Amino acid sequence: MNDSFVPALLRWFDTNGRDLPWRHTHDPYAIWLSEVILQQTQVVQGQAYWERFLKTFPTVQDLAAASEDKVLLLWEGLGYYSRARNLYKAARQIVSLGHFPTTPEELEKLKGIGPYTAAAVASFAFGVPVAAVDGNAYRVLSRLMGIDTPINSTEGKKLFSQLAQSFVPEDRPGDFNQAMMDFGATHCTPKAPQCTTCPFIETCIAFHTHRVGMLPVKLKKTKIQTIRFAYFYLRCGGEVAIHRREKGIWQGLWEPLWIEKKADSPLDPILEKIEEKPVLLRQSVKHVLTHRVLYADFYLLELTVKPELPEGYIWIKESELGEYALPRLVEILVDEVRQYTASEISKESTE
């Protein structure tokens, strides 16, 4: 199959490959940046962030010299913030090394870089003949060859890695990896793949055995956790109270008072000492993450006197809130506060 598959795939890529800006450079920094951004992000959204990052931090040295706060603020809206934190730490590693690593083995030593990203950067930037196996590659290979070994099992990862590596051409490794990605992303898609116009329809085992919709196979391992809590937007004299998360998925980001939602009341001893009553802006706002579903109640609490808050909280000017990196859920809360405030002002003006 190797004799016909690789040439046919590259011919398809030469005609149908996506024209993406990071494919017009061999700069490993720009390529690595695109790979990190696109790990959990659609190309359309990711490209704008890639361009902003390169404009703000033209080189890996610029990124390493920045503050983590500035990196997180620029990342705001992309989610999966551990990617941004790892990106920043890896940039500092690279600068410390004095050069950008050129091999998959060296690249994997950088914070946040796994086998796929290491192979992608090595093949795209340095022409190393190594397979970059992502979800698209798993899907294309499992369907073409009718493989039902779970792709997230130890056996499956080893099998598909070896299989993909056996196909990598010495002269066009980067193009081959990009072709696998594009073919899976635009043609051999998870749902409604274009089988009737597929260049491999004659040899695709999944198509001829009516298993296209069944492959690839993936084991279900992760249990989804449901978390319920309340955000209290404390405002006093034009200032708001926020704190920076020290751990978890939103580590390094800022948020208002967070209180676990209890069965009897969302309130906490901190709030029980406050005379003013909070205004409920929205209830049970659903926010879905990879392994968690969050349900948040949004409260606004207008204060005349600043209360004693838990350690780590600070008061900042409300007008400067945009200078702090916020989780998407907090951005939604801030929008609700602004809408409520505007409506209250409008009511007062008409009374």
TrEMBL record:
In terms of domain of life, where is this protein from?
Bacteria
Q: Which SUPFAM superfamilies match?
A: DNA-glycosylase, Nudix
Q: Which residues form a coiled coil?
A: none
Describe cofactor binding as the record notes it: Binds 1 [4Fe-4S] cluster.
Explain the purpose of this protein: Adenine glycosylase active on G-A mispairs. MutY also corrects error-prone DNA synthesis past GO lesions which are due to the oxidatively damaged form of guanine: 7,8-dihydro-8-oxoguanine (8-oxo-dGTP).
Residue ranges of every copy of the HhH-GPD domain listed in the record: 37-186
The UniProt record lists the keyword Hydrolase: yes
List the cofactors.
Answer: [4Fe-4S] cluster
Reaction equation(s) it catalyzes: Hydrolyzes free adenine bases from 7,8-dihydro-8-oxoguanine:adenine mismatched double-stranded DNA, leaving an apurinic site
Name the UniProt key words of this record, in alphabetical order: 4Fe-4S, DNA damage, DNA repair, Glycosidase, Hydrolase, Iron, Iron-sulfur, Metal-binding
Q: What is this protein called?
A: Adenine DNA glycosylase
The UniProt record lists the EC number as 3.2.2.31
UniProt xrefs under InterPro entries: A/G_AdeGlyc_MutY, DNA_glycosylase, HhH-GPD_domain, HhH_base_excis_C, HhH_motif, MIG/MutY, MutY_C, NUDIX_hydrolase-like_dom_sf
